[in-house]
User: What shape does this take?
Amino acid sequence: MEASALTIEDGAAKLAGDLTFTTVTGLYHRMQSVAAAAGMPCSINLADVGKIDSAGLALLLEWQSVFRNQNGSSALIAISNPPPALLKIARLCDAGEFLSENPDTREE
Assistant: This one.
């Protein structure tokens, strides 16, 4: 699975395909357009994500940063169904708190 897709419905995003170095640029630009028109989505579902690497993590962290700038310094996008590989990479980078499924209950 190489291709990636981003769908937005009712303020929620869903990603499908791979989140790798070869796919994140297109997703980044697509989300920039969405954010400019309607703001960042408040949740992202990763249930249909295949491969993911550090570029995929970097993309999600960038989206969290944009969301925080739009919604307040402590706001986070809720990430649902993160693949185990993403959680492993995030732990290695000490970024796991930014991928919480329920950001309101994360530990400070």
Summary: The beta strands are 4-9, 12-19, 43-52, 78-80. The CA atoms of residues 40 and 66 lie 7 Å apart.
